[in-house]
Write a structure and sequence with these properties.
The structure is a single chain. The protein has three domains: 143 residues, Alpha-D-Glucose-1,6-Bisphosphate, Chain A, domain 3, CATH 3.40.120; 194 residues, Alpha-D-Glucose-1,6-Bisphosphate, subunit A, domain 3 (Alpha-D-Glucose-1,6-Bisphosphate, Chain A, domain 3), CATH 3.40.120; 80 residues, TATA-Binding Protein, CATH 3.30.310. Helices cover 37% and strands 22% of the residues. The protein has a seven-stranded mixed β-sheet, sandwiched between helices. Helix 1 packs across helix 4, helix 5 runs parallel beside helix 7 and helix 6 crosses helix 12.
């Protein structure tokens, strides 16, 4: 008998292929468990533009209400907008229906607590235990109520514009011409709206909210050819690309070249620390540019396992000024504790306006390292854990961190091999001196695929 595929369950939520590993039964079980976890109050529910999102959202709302939880529906919004709504309305939590950068056939449930952070690892374990006993309440007299809020996006943007770090007048004076690719996702009108309010001239592509992604939705250089061409065609100052739920941001320079998603956070860190000193928190897979920038301002850069929840916890613990992940996710704690493409855009534009630089000049001012990323499918018969043990034995002299897969550091650079939280794949990151990084990446890919 063929076993049913299971969803991926982690601090990043419950993910799967719709109709296969993410079924109505799975959605009902986990939503009912979440309702028991939070016990009472009002929960915000939003979604990205995937065609499967409407039915999943309806199922989530119905199950929460059946469990006696009140629901505030937001409709199609970025994930960071839902996080802002939790804080703004003082809610008990939130559920975002989005699989973020995953292909269109995927969807997911991202669960948030009252502080608008992802569930902690301990809460995820409790949630999983509750799925074994969760039951939908049948007493209709205790059914929750449903309301909606159409102003969540506008409130989110107003909060960003009110930040002292966002130099509205200086940005407006530069009259940046910005090309924007929202991959037909939830950022389809939010990012253009923010940029227009900042006085930018905006040209958009892929802003039809139908969830039909025109290219692989992960905002990495190999997927941004259309945006690169648009920047060159318009003679734009820069380009911006988001993922489907607009919590990640990547840039294209005025030369029409994608600079790489790692630079988003490094640019934001450089700017924020120049204005507001404080510690930084990033995950183990993120570029050491951030460590070097923090060092320039006399600050400490703390490392965490991969996952927004881990970084948010570190920022809270160390009272961090800024943090995030090298996938283009910027977290500004003074706004809210989650990755936010909109605040990332405002901070980087403020950096360029304040320092009178082009994007290319700002990138050139950052420390430079060779950064190589690779990934591979987890084949059923491949012993990935055994491969990690072998890699560790071959690198006994490295500084070791095993909180998330295997991370090893050397004088020439570092590398990490880990299992993805969001896809059934392994991920490899190598950074350091160019000759060392290229040779080490070849060696490790051979070990992982052989």
């Amino acid at each position: 008998m063929k076993l049913k595929p299971k969803p991926l369950v982690s601090v990043s939520g419950i993910r799967g292929i719709v109709g296969e590993s993410l079924t109505p039964e799975i959605i009902t079980i986990y939503t009912s468990a979440f309702a028991r976890l939070i016990k009472k109050g009002t929960v915000a529910v939003g979604r990205d533009t995937r065609p499967s999102g409407v039915n999943i959202e309806n199922l989530v709302v119905d199950n929460l209400m059946a469990a006696g939880i009140d629901v505030l529906t937001l409709g199609i919004v970025p994930t960071p907008t839902l996080e802002m709504a939790i804080l703004e309305k003082k809610l008990a939590g939130g559920v975002m229906v989005t699989a973020s950068h995953n292909p269109a056939e995927w969807n997911a449930l991202k669960f948030f607590g009252p502080e608008s952070t992802f569930l902690s690892p301990q809460q995820v374990e409790k949630l999983k235990k509750l799925t074994k006993t969760s039951r939908i309440r049948k007493d209709s007299s205790k059914r929750g109520k449903k309301t909606s809020w159409e102003g969540a996006v506008e409130t989110h943007i107003e909060k960003i514009l009110a930040l002292g770090l966002v130099k509205k007048e200086k940005i407006a004076a530069r009259r940046f011409k910005v090309a924007v690719d929202c991959v037909n996702g939830a950022g389809f009108y939010t990012l253009p709206m923010l940029l227009e309010k900042l006085g930018c001239e905006v040209a958009t592509i892929n802003v039809i909210p139908d969830g039909r992604f025109p290219h692989n939705p992960e905002p990495i250089p190999e997927n941004l050819g259309q945006l690169e061409a648009k920047v060159r065609e318009l003679g734009a100052d820069l380009g911006m690309a988001t993922d489907p739920d607009a919590d990640r941001l990547a840039f294209v320079s005025g030369a029409g070249k994608a600079i790489g998603e790692e630079y988003t956070l490094a640019l934001a860190v450089d700017y924020v620390l120049s204005q507001t000193p404080g510690p930084v928190a990033v995950n183990l897979s993120t570029s050491q540019m951030n460590d070097e920038v923090a060092k320039k301002y006399g600050q400490k850069c703390y490392r965490t396992p991969v996952g927004e929840a881990h970084v948010a916890m570190a920022l809270k613990k160390y009272k961090g000024a800024i943090g995030g992940e090298g996938n283009g996710g910027v977290i500004l704690p003074q706004l809210h504790p989650g990755r936010d493409a909109l605040v990332g855009a405002a901070l980087v534009l403020s950096h360029l306006a304040e320092n009178r630089k082009t994007l290319g000049q700002a990138v050139d001012a950052l420390p430079r390292f060779s950064f190589i990323k690779a990934k591979g499918t987890l084949a059923p018969k491949v012993d990935i854990k055994g491969k990690l043990v072998k890699i560790e034995k071959l690198h006994r002299n490295g500084r070791k961190d095993k909180r998330d897969g295997l991370w090893l550091g050397f004088p020439e650079g570092w590398f990490q091999v880990r299992l993805s939280n969001t896809e059934p794949i392994w991920r490899l990151a190598v950074e350091g001196r160019p000759d060392w990084a290229e040779a080490k990446a070849r060696e490790l890919k051979k070990l992982l695929t052989g």
